[in-house]
Structure formats: structure tokens, C-alpha cells
Amino acid sequence: MVVTQLLLIGLLVALTSANYCSYFDNREPSYEPKLRRCSAYRERSCCQPDEEDIGFDIDPIFNGGESAECRTTVGRLRCWICHPRQNLFYANETLTVCEGMCNQLLADCGSARWRDRRVQSYYRNGREFCTEMGFAIGTGSGCFTASAARAAVSSSKLATLVTLFAGFLLTGLLTKSSQVNMALVSVVIAVILMASPISAQTTARASEVTSWADRVSTFISSLANEQLLVNEAQALFDSVEYAEIDVNGTEVVEGIRQRLSNFATLKLNALDRMATAVADEYNQFIRGTREQPFNNPEELPASIYRDSDASDHLPYDQLTFDRRFQYNVNLNQSSVKITSGLDRTNDDLITQINISAVLDPIFKENLANDPFISYQFFGSSTGFMRVYPGRPWQRNVIGFRDDFDPRFRPWFVAATSGPKDVVIVVDTSRSMGDFFNRRWRIALRTVDTLLSTLTKDDYVNVITYRSSHWDYNSNRYVYRPFQVLGCRQRGLQPASAAHQQELMDRLREFGPAGGSNPSSAFLEAYRLLDSSPKTGCQQFVLWVTDEQHGDNDVRCGPGRYIQTEDSQEYVPGPLCSFVSAYETVRNTVRSSTAINNKVRTFSFSVLPKDQVYAAEIACVGNGARQGIDDERRGSIREQSNGFFDFIEQSTRPTDVIWTSPYVDAFGLGLLLTVAQPVVVENNRHIGVVGIDVRLSDIEQILFSQQWGSLYSFMTNEEVEVIVHPRLTPSAELTNDLETPPLELLETQNGIPDLTELRNALRNRETGSVVYSGVPRPVLRGDDLDGVVYEEGTTSNYFYSIIENTDFSFAFNFESDDLTFVYPLEENLTLDTPTVYHELNAYRDVFPDIYNSLDVQQPRTSADYPLSLLTNLNSTIKLAPKAFCDSNMYLRQNNYPNLTFIHNFLNGAGDDVGCDNADGVFEIRARPDTFITSGMEELWKGRVGQNDHLISLSYVGTNAGVMRVFPGVQWSRRYDPTTRPFYHRAVSNRGTLALSYAYRDAAGVGKIITLSEVLYLGKRPAGISECSTPANRSERCECTMASQCDAGRCERGRCVNTQVEAVIGIDIRYDDFHGQMISRMSSGSNPCGTNCESEACPTRCYVIDDSGNVIFSEGLKQANELDTRNYNRVPLGRVEPGVMRDLIRVKNFFIPEPVQVDFQGVCDQLNYFVPLSSEGILRTAEEEDNYLEERGPLRKFQNQFGCVEDIVRYNANPAAIPATTNVISGTQSTTCSSGTYYLTAVRDTNTYLLVIDDWTSLVKDTTFGLNCLVERTLYSAGAHRAINGTCSILRESTTSVTGTCPDLDLSVRPVCSPTGQRGSGNVPRHLHWYIMGIIALCLIVLNL
User: Fold this and answer.
1) Pick the residue with more confidence: 384 or 1049?
2) pTM
3) What kind and span of H or E run contains 234?
4) Which H or E run contains 425?
């Protein structure tokens, strides 16, 4: 009967989970009763209430003329992201729409205007219309249609019934199983009561646990001896002759300085050509030597105007995918993006489009001269952007092109206005909350829009205000008169992306409440502008308010009872009027402006009424009032034009600027933009020219010099770090870069004192400084694993500047790094022919070799599901840094071609290295290929009982050479020296480093890695050096570290400090789990018993020295997509009671100081396990080609950049008693209870933890909440930091270094006491009042 029930449940679960949310990373649909706009999907929805606005939060689609039917049909289209069966019609980032839906869209929206024409004039039928929107067209159930909601509702009702039936069956099963569980608990309790005294039992159990640990150690050691082959690999490196070159750090830095300075100079020269050409062409026009005969952009010839929004202007067959731009582009011509809502007949707009076409030949010349230029562009003050190469604009979630206004981009504002100090004062009083809270939503959008135009070079803070009051019933509400939201409560802070985000997060915590008294907030605003640090350039107070001087039921006193003739009568307190407060603000603004004439005050009136306070206050502050009545982001920008126009008109910057790094809107990762204003006759700005520079290009140059423990980094003018090995690579960042101070990455507890280095970098000097006897960081794994510090080392810093930029850089040499050691190739031989990892490329170039490899394609092997591999050979992968021009390798598909690279790696041609202009590969690449070739026969010849466990064997060298067997293909950016297995081995020298489970980069699946370091094989000088009691040279026999010159004795020999390679083996986790269970299956309470119930005999874990779980039953149960439950699982999450005891009582785990990761990655969605791997798991080739082959409608971006606190622990082996070799204790917490035993697994970085009589104590909501808190308290890993960016700020009492552009203080914006509206239109909410008055008049007339 039970079997039948289980089969039925399995069938029902399969039926209810057949569909998944492909837009949201394949999560499961859910019941969402609070959906508002997409309510048809409430019973089963892919989107949650805070996500349904994704389709609606889009700037204007049409330029007017859309009918009610059009809005309804488009509204249904906006809701496709909520459809519970979207995996049927959204795949590979392409939305398939039913042809009937396409016809309906065109029929309902044909009269709407787009690009100044009606939509129906562009397209003959719905298919053409949908093709223009980037949709695929389909039929049947595999496409989306407006009637899809009804089908979804029907299916969701079926799913509900199915789920209820499944629950009924499960209830029956659980009722029976609970009786069995209670019987088991009774038996366990009886056994405990009859057991021998606890001390004897503990001793016996401890002995049993240590015996299990010994068996685990023996198993891992046998893997190392039989499969890892550390000694054999070390012998290969020992047999090599090495050359030694004394390194001059100054010369190394000078070489990099020249490369980086040339890199920057090429961009500056290109920029100057662009600015000069546009200015000259425009000057000719205003002098009358050029005519402008066109009335609309559409009349311009195709050689001048290609619209980025129109597919017919950029036909697909004229576009080519280019890795430099990661997009399909037109390299022959630029394209033009015109901001939505502009008057396309504007003469200056048409003129600038016309004359800016002069840039096309210059664009092409620049790219030919400098292949590492990214996009080049001209952003016009009229609101369009010309961009090269030409490209179609990206689409939003419903297929329409995204809007884009260059005038509000940070690079445009920075180039035309220079640095700014800004304080935003926000009215959070009760009147800001109308019936639908629309006024408050618009206020939030306005603040967000203003912040988004700032850059890290600007300084900002936000102040909210509301006043205390009574209500009608005399209830007292007490509020602080103002609150400063920034980290700096008494000053301004850089307007970085993270600071902007945190200011908005804190502002959203407010809701409209209290009275409207702004007087204290304005006093504080001017005090902040007078504090330091600040730019000292343009200064603004921006006031966001509804300008009401009274609020509903906000009273300035309590009510009282008065005696009448018959009874007492209650009289509420008087309503507050803040007219006098506005008078106080007016006087504050007038006096502050008189003292500091750089300060301007602008007001932004939300849904403005006929009040004059905001306008009057702005006028006396030498500013103006902007009326904001439309909450769409693009409209807010357009309505704020008066403010932005003033910024541009009041400054006269002409200098080139380098922006702070930011994430590119086109998907190129982290960029720097170098920009320059275009100034024409009469000193007028007509726009900005700019060139995008990928930060990854700078990283590749900076990291091109690496050996030993040498590393480099780059800083900005504030000595904040932009590039560093401990920071996330720029290509992987999901948000604008946060720049931590130098000391955060280069010191331990303030040691060494880097004042001398900091001052030198700040002053843009070239030189060196030495710090002796200081700690040196060594990466332990990835950034979350943190670092270990090698004590007593010497750091030799050599530093210089990148000319024509604001950046400096430095190299940190350890003493041994001042000698460059590399293997000599003369006496090396290639044991077996080398095969490059791009196996499929051999099919056409070397067909005989390809046929001999018996290549297996991805998804054809159960053991290697995503791997392209050969079981007959190893393959070689060269990391980007192994190429002399790593940027060229990453940018061009066929660089160098396979014929050249295969022949070179097999010994053809001279190996001249990167010092020679003809060099292609780093000098160590080919010797490392030759040395590691000896491993292939060793791997093939392995014998032993564990050889079937190994999925991959490999050696990754310090030079970036990776040899792997069986041979597989890797992604283009793969670098073994940046992988966790490499760092983990380096930070655990002298032991076998066992990783936690993770998903393999080669496509094998869920694996465990065993790795160990290989050292530089220097030969000892002679026998006499190996017979001395101390100071023995490398490779001499030893028994203790004190005998060795370098202080290291490993594997019975003296070793030096220079790691040459790491050798590793991968084991599929399920195989590893089975082997571990078999070593712990003896005794009365063996591991391996099913412990999914509330009580079980034994729970077993293997943990590493950071407290991460390496082995457990939970890790085995987690499927490959459930990464949270097998990858880096902290012990504190699964056994918080034991972790707490090991930290607080046993002193076994020592907490490290909490570190801040300013480049963390957080998820917007709550964690879920994807229901399908479709679109998530990709082969190496698919990963490389993903950007080229993906569809036009991007998936939901779940991850975003955030600041995280990193909590780490270090194991303290000395805490384990030497007498028993076991730590034992009893845990009884809000989560579980039991007796635990912990012991070391010899010769590894791991420990065995066994818990007897484990019982869950989570039986009610209270205990469940307490358990959740306890798990959070004792879990290692990353936790999103509250106010995390505050820790990045360095206290300063001086103004920011830098220069301000010339300010024209005589410029005054147009300001009248009655104010002005940015849009120039009647506010939309007044239309109803006007219509009502007209209707009333008609009624009266009829009467």
C-alpha cells in the first residue's frame, strides 16, 4: 500500500511541477493572491507582487495616440513574466508570441504614434510588427497570447486539486511513519538508560571516532599516493634546469607604466580628434557655410542617419558579432539613438545629427589605431547619441527598445558640470501620502533620478523632515525634526553606486507621516555643505516636496473639553499651519546664499498645486522650481531639464575627465569613460564626446607580470583600490565598483603602517618603499575563503603613475620575487604530443589528430555530461596571462590560430618570450607544457583500487598552463591560478587540501577536489649543504623545518617558498560520499543511517579548517542545481549548537575579524532550487559563445552588487587534547541536541565530527525562529551588511583634491514666484478636475 501511495505522489508531483519560470532562473510558480496588475495569475504565478511591475516600470513606449484597447493589450503583454507556464514560450532569452496576439497588437495599437508616424504605417501585418519587437512567432501551446491567462488559471486550479490530493496521501504516510519514529525514539532512550557510565562510554566512543578518522586519512593518503602522484610530479619539476634573473623592480614598473600610459594616450588623442571634428563642423554651420535643408531625421540620407531603434535601419544581415563589443554591430557606420518624447522636427536636433556624421571616418580610424577602444560616441545636448560601431538598442521585457537620454548619464553630467556637492531635502510629511500613495512614489522616483546622475566624484547626502503633532483624538506623535540618511551624519559622502543604493534603501523605509516643517532640515543642509570633505565646486540644495503648508489631521496642540450649558463638548487641537516655517526657510536660504554664492536651491514640486512657497524659496536661492507630475523615470528627467540645463550653462569645463568605474549599460562589464565637452563658438557646449575603456583591459596589462607571490594593484587619486587580486575581476562584477581604501587589502590589524606609500600614491610619485618583518596575505580559496597571513615577510613596493589619468599603480615583491626563475627549454623533451583544448577545431585543421582522439561531444556521456573530451589524451589550456597580448586573445576568436598554437606547443619555432616584439607566449608557457607532458603516461598508468573514482586529473602552473586528463575543453577566460583549488593548496602547504563540494568548471558535475602544491625545483648546491644540521638547501632531506634554509620541511625534503604549480584530482561527490561512509560503517552506531527524521542514532560530518562541511548526508541529497546546500555549507548552518560550543567553550574555532567585501553579490530573489537546468548549465563552448547566441529579451537579473560582511573562522588544532585526540561535548540548543566528538583527519586540512543521539528540537514556531537566529549567528560566509558602505569611508576634514571648472555665477535660471513645470503641460491629475468643471457647467447651462 505504501509503495502505491509513493508512486502516486511521485506522479502527482511530476504533474504539478512540469512547468517552471524560465525568466526567473527556472524557479517554481507559486500562489500569489496579492498580485494587482496581473491578477489573472494569482492562483499560480511566476512573479511575486514586488516583481509584477517589471513589465510596467518601463518608460513611454509610444509617442501618443494609443487607444484604451491598445493599453489593455499591451498590459496583457506586460504580464507574460507572471505566466506559470512561461518555459513553453520563453527560452534562450527569446519570447515566442502567438501570431494571433501579434495581429491583435497591431490592430489595437496601429493608430499609436512611434517615431512621428503611426505604427500601422510601418508594418503590413502582425508578424512584421512582432519581428520588429524581437519576438519569435509561433502557434499552439508553445507561444504566448492575450488569452493565456485563462488557460493558466485553469491549469492552476488543476494544480491546486492535485496538490491537495498529494497532501492527503502524504498525511497518511506521515501519520504511520511518525508512529515508527516514536518507537525508535523509545528504543534509543531505553538503550541510553541501560548504558554504562557516561565517562566510560565517552572514552570508548572517542576511540571509535579516532579510528574512523584514521581510516579516512588512510583513504585520502592512498588517493594521494596512487592517484594524485605528488612525488612523481615534483620529480618532474626537480629534473629541470632553471635560469635565474635578478629583477629590478623599478624597471618592471617602468615597463608597465609605459604600456599603461600609451594605452591612455591613444584614447586621449582619439578623443581630441573627435571633439575637434564636431566643433569645426558645427562652427561652419553657424557661420552659414553649411546648410541644413532637412525637416525630420527620417529625411536624412542613410549615410548620415541610422536609427538604433529601427530594425530596417540596421538589417541583421549587415551586423556582425564582435567580441570587442559583445554584440552584433555595424563596423562600417555609426547609429543614432534619439531620446523618447523629443520633438523630432527641432532644427538644432536635426542639425547636430547631420553634422555629427563627420565622426564616422574618425571613429573607424581610431579603432584601427587602437583595437582596445570600446564604444565611441557623441552625446548631444539636444538629447540624442551617435554611437560607433552602430548597433540596435537593447530591448525591454516586452520587446520595445529601452529609452536612453545621454544628457542624464553620469559621464555627460560630469563632463559638462564637473564635481558637485549635493544635499537632497525630502518632505516625508503626512501630506505626501495621497490615497494611492502616488505622490510618495513620485517623490522616491525623483530622488532616485537625481542620485543616478551623480558619480563617485560628486559628494551627496539626503535629509528627510517631518514634525511632531497631535491628532484629532489628542494622540501625540513624536518625530525627529530631521534625519540625515547618509553614513556621515555630519558631512557629505561620495555619490558611489553603493552609497546611492543605501540612501534610497533608507529613504524607502520612511512613509508619509508627521507635519510639514522644513526649517530644521534646511539649516542642516547648509551646515552639511559647509563641512568637509566636499568638492568645493558647484553646490546644490535640492528640495523634493508637495509644498503643502498643512497636513490632514496634523494638529499643533491637544484637544480639550469645554463646558456647555448641557454637557461637556470635545474640541480637537488646532490644525497646524506651517506658513511661518516656510518664511523661516526663505530667510535661511536668502542668508545662506548671500554668504556662499556657489550654493543654488532648486525645488521639485510633486503633483504641484497652486502654491508659491517652493518657487519663492527656490528663487531666493538663485534656483528655480521644477514641477513633477509624471512618475515614469524618463518623464521625471524631462521635467527636471531646467535644473540640468542650469548646471550646464553655469559651468565652463573644457578638460578631459576620467569617470570612476561603472557597469556598462551595453553589457561590457566594468568601464571607465574618458569624456570631453564639445565647445563651439560663443563658448557654448553642444555635447560631449566619449570613449569607453574596459577595466579588464587594464587588468590584463597590470597582471601580465606575475611570478612567485608577486602581485600588483591600481588606485585612484584618493588612494582607493580599483584593481587588486583580492577584488572581484571586473568582468564578473554586477554593480558599479566600490573602491576600498588601500589599508583594507594590504594590512593586517594596521600592520604595516602604509602612510609613506599612501602619501606617495596620493602625490602621484614614482619610487619604492620597503616594509620588513610584516604579514603578507595569501588567498585561501576564493574571496569568501579570505586570506592567511605569512608572518615576518618583506614587502617591496614599487609604484608609479599612469600618465594623463588620475590613476597610480604599484607592485608588491616579496624578497624571493626579486629573482625571476624560469625553466630552461634546451634540455626538455616532449614525452607525448600536446593537444590544445579546443578539440572540435582539430576536425578541420588536423583531421588525422582529431580522428585519433575519439572526441566525445557534450551531453553524450553520463559521466561527463557537459564536457567536450577525449579519454585518449590530456589537453593543454593556456590562461589569458600566458599570452603576451592577453587582450587580443580574449577579444578575437581565432587568435592565435590553431595551426600556430599546436605547432608551437609541440616545439616548432623559437620561444622568444614577451620581451621580444614578435613574442606570442610568456617565456614559461612552453617549458611548462613540456614538463607536464610527463604526467600523461603517469596518469594513464595508474593502478589501484581507487582509480575508478577519479573524474579529472590535472596540473596548473604558476604561468597559467593547465594540463588535464581526460582531455577537456575549458572556457576562454579560465585561469587555474585564480581557481579556489589552487589558492586552497597554496594556503595549506604541507598538507593535502580537500575542497568542499562544488560544480566543476569542466562540466563534470558536483565534485570534491584533492590538491597539493609543487615547488620550484631548484637543485641543492652539493652534498655538503645537505649534511649540515641547519640551513639546508632545497631538496635536501629533513625531518623538521628548523633544518631548512627556507624554514619549510615537507614530504621529507626542504622546500623553498616559491610555488611552481598545484596538482589536483576531482572526484564525483557521490563516489566520494560512498567511500567515506564505508570507512565509518563499523561499531554500534555507524554513520550512514538515514537521519532525515527528528531523531537518529548518528550524524557524521567532515569539515575543513574554516568550518565548511565537506561530507554529510545533506550534501549527498542536494542535487547539482541546489548549490546552496552543497557548496560552502558552513557547519554553523546545519549544527549551530556544536559550532557555538566549538567557538565559545572549546576554543577550537577562532573567529577572524569581520571583513567587508565591497564587491559582494546578493540575490534579489529568495533562495530556490531551479526545476530545470535549461539555460543554467552550459558547456565551455556555450559559455564562450553565450553573448553571441543569446536572444534579445534578457532574463531577470537576480544578482546585484552589494556590500557584505565576511565572517570566517580558523581551526585551532592545539585545542584538541593530546591525550585523547578528541574534543567531546554535549549540545542542547534551540535547534537540536546530542553528544558530539571531533578529531583531526591526519595529513589533511579536515576534521571528523560525529554526533550521537541527535534529536531535533524545532517543534514550534518560537523554537524555529530561535534556531534560525542561532544558525545566522554561528555561520561563516557572506552576510549582506547593513550600512555596509559606511565602513569604506575614511574620515576627512579637508576638501577633496582636484580642480573645479570655471563657474559663471552670473547665470540665473528662469525663476518666477509662480514656479514652472518641467514638462510645460497641465498636470495629469488636474485633467479630471477640469473635465468635472466643464461637465458641471454644461449641466447648469442645460438647466
Assistant:
1) 384
2) 0.83
3) helix 230-238
4) strand 420-427
